[in-house]
Amino acid sequence: MTVIGLIRHGLTDWNTERRIQGQTDVPLNELGQKQAELLSQRMKDEHWDYIYASDLGRARETAACIGNVKQMEVNTDQRLREMYCGQIEGTTLEERVAKWGEDWSQLDLGVETHQQIAARGVSFIQEVIERHPNQKVLIVSHGALLSLTLMDLIPHEDIEEHLHNTSVTKIRHTESRWECLQYNCIVHLDGLE
Questions:
Q1: pLDDT value at position 193?
Q2: Neighbours of 161 (CB within 10 A)
Q3: Non-local CB neighbours of 170 within 8 Å, separated by 6+ positions
Q4: CB-based contacts of 35: which residues, under 8 Å, 6+ apart?
Q5: 3-state secondary structure of 31
Q6: Euclidean distance between the first and final Cα of the chain, in Å?
Q7: What number is the average pLDDT over the span 119-135?
Q8: Within 10 A of 107 (CB to CB), how many other CB atoms are there?
Q9: Residue 46 — φ and ψ, nearest 5°?
Q10: Could you count the other beta carbons within 10 Å of the beta carbon of residue 94?
Q11: Average pLDDT for residues 92-96, to the nearest whole number?
């Protein structure tokens, strides 16, 4: 069976400001870098065969921390990018309401659909399990992509909790289905202010 570790990138200034990041390439902030370092220390003694990441800087940088500690190459793939958010990228809720009104989310503002983003994530993971059978693979990506992909793969699990920055979720593929081994774990951040 193949085990997949799904990790959300570390914190950015736009996360703190509650701005929609989408595919805008926003770097980790100082706290996000600390989170990534703590995550890499957690991963140091875990066995993983491969690391993949979104090609956006915040995910690449998070993955690179793990790769450096484990002396592993990080492979990037555009399919692991965050949801494309069209005209709302870079905006806060207040800015969206001011510009488009209370019903802004009902407008066609060029945002990728949930089905499209889940299809990207599932497609990538299916390719990983075919390419790396019976191995352990880390994937560093983004909140919406990971959440929507997980909803598709493990609809039988309670995964409503918002994924935290640098959280670790582990899923295992058996012959006929996926099962969740760990969800949204951030024990490595204990004590971080």
A1: 62
A2: 10
A3: 3, 4, 5, 6, 180, 181, 182
A4: 10, 11, 28, 62, 165, 166, 189, 192
A5: helix
A6: 38
A7: 96
A8: 13
A9: -95, 145
A10: 9
A11: 97
Average pLDDT, the chain: 96
* Structure confidence at residue 158 (pLDDT): 87
Q: What b/e string do you get for 53-67 counting C-beta neighbours within 10 Å, with b at 16 or more?
A: bbebebbbbbbbbbb
User: How does DSSP classify residue 60?
Assistant: H
37, 61, 82, 112: the active-site residue: 82
Q: Token pair for residue 110?
A: 């060029």
- Which pLDDT score, from 0 to 100, does residue 175 have? 80
User: With 80 as the cut, is the pLDDT of residue 129 above it?
Assistant: yes
pLDDT given at position 174: 85
164 tagged catalytic: no
**131 vs 160, which has greater pLDDT?**
131
Task: Please say if 82 is a catalytic residue.
Answer: yes
The residue with tokens 């140091």 is 44
